[in-house]
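Hello K.,

You asked for the raw outputs rather than the summary table, so here they are, unedited. I folded two proteins back to back in the same session to keep the settings identical. This is the first:
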Amino acid sequence: MTPMTTYQLPVINVQALSDPQASAEALGAVAHQIALACRAHGFFYAIGHDVPQPLIGELERLSRQFFALDEATKLQWRMALGGRAWRGYFKTGGELTSGVPDWKEGLYLGSELGAEHPLVRAGTPVHGPNLWPDLPGFRDTVLAYLEAVAGLGHALMRGIALSLELPADYFASRYTADPLILFRLFNYPSRPAPEGSGVAWGVGEHTDYGLLTLLYQDTTGGLQVKTREGWIEAPPLPGSFVCNIGDMLDLMTGGLYRSTPHRVRLNTSGTDRLSFPLFFDPAFNTRVQPIAGLPAPEDDSGSRWDQSNVHTFAGTYGDYLLGKIGKVFPELQQQVL
């Protein structure tokens, strides 16, 4: 990895966004960097955050312990048992992007909501309890990680609001006072995909659905981002989260901040690769609206990976999300739709 490769995407120190004593000048400087990154790439590395490195290290240790279990054991927590909560394990090749299997396995998690929670009582899709692997410390570590990274998500959304010359609480007051938090543990095996499987990528080209994704990746690498100049690598930068904007922020900003396609190479490193994306998204039942005062969007469907026009969508975030996730696990879609 060369320095040039490391810094092809912007690196932003976001410490001021979590500092209640930060000056207007410091906040403005961070907001300006975020604006440049979101207009140019839709991706940036966030450093200077408050997520403890020992917590990340413990989650990585426990994740490797989980994925090292034999498949039959891991399938005790399979997604078919998660019901409408859309939680649980899927085996390698079990998730699709654009109808093609990805060469990864994973564990779907999210905010831990019990049966008494109003959204769970109402049968709201993608809300409910997690399926917890029987590993000492796993549940507590994941929940601590979710709380810490969600805190970073709130801070970054304040920065994004300021970058658009909006009040710092613009998104919190409308969409993310109680955000939808979905979280994934992904393992990209170093063993090759079976011949004839049609698998070409760890994850195929796609954009994320919501507001903001915060990704921790281990030291292996493999993430690629589609910029105006073509595909570039987004290699691991120690102590950072890779952040990217999703389709809903694209919609809200009229395409000023675009959700950028990305993908993951097949893992040929000889070592299994871990990545932990956390999706910080609007509350499920909130109706997503364009931000007043921004230019009208253009139809960019011709240049999008799926030829869709996100700016024609009208409805709640839940409507948009459900229209997408049924294509990821077709055999499970009736459980949530």
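The second followed immediately with the same parameters:
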Amino acid sequence: MTRQALVLGAGGFIGGHLVKRLKAEGFWVRGVDLKEHEHAVTAADDFVMGDLRDQQVVDAVIDRKFDEVYQLAADMGGAGYIFTGEHDADIMHNSATINLNVVHKARERGVDNLFYSSSACMYPAYNQEDPDNPNCAEDSAYPAAPDSEYGWEKLFSERLYLAYNRNYGMNCRVARYHNIFGPEGTWDGGKEKAPAAICRKVALAADGGTIDVWGDGLQTRSFLYIDECVEGTIRLLRSGFEGPVNIGSDEMVSINQLVAMVADIAGKTIHINHIPGPEGVRGRNSDNRLIEERLGWRPSATLTQGLEKTYEWIERQTRRNAPAGQPATAGA
């Protein structure tokens, strides 16, 4: 009998890649999202356009006991969306409502395997003030002090899914994603993450040109390539470990170093203009000791390998979107 999977947030970057992976494994897949995928044709057998804040929509799409359910749907974006404070109420209301609706209906349908994508943004800001020595071990989450309302909502929803495990015998799995990037992700418009934004700026800049970077560029992060994220996600759901657990790279770089890596891939000399802007915490890096201990796995792809594929894809998008008769280097 064909296994059936449900991917909520299938019109998004990670969801789109996850659907393709599940299809390659032989699953029948239903995808659900508010919108179609912007950068790829969905591989889902059944794609439902629907708002998961609406309980009736959730009732309709979780209409059976799926073998696997992946809950990736959320109101989210890059630093320019999350850290300005202008979208806090929407972020908290929209994402919390989705998660409350989804876990309630999944329990009613007897779903045994449900994955929830939390975020490293739920880690305390006080453990991420030193850019060279951030602490993002899973057990460092409390006392809680995320640096954004997005992080607070993620923390609430982690506790929601794990409470359903305790009270209703569900098998929800919780992962904390760390800055996932790759082709077919948002690369402009304000919701893109740092790797995509930098790839776009470098692609649009002339050799010897200058790009803007928020802050002093000394803030550190780690970035995980999409294929590794999908692998870790599936391994966690099919494991006996509920989490929460980090799914991220432990190859930490500064934003200035990230720019240099992308410029090297592009074969360009790029100068940086540091400007005021939302930065988030000073340092963040995935601690992968727990995932290696519990799943016998950790990400292995290097940042450079992922950036090469991502830059190639984004550079193509910039050429495709350049006005007729104008070079794609007109502006950054």
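Residues 88-108 form the longest helix (21 residues).

Happy to rerun anything if the numbers look odd on your end.

Regards,
P.
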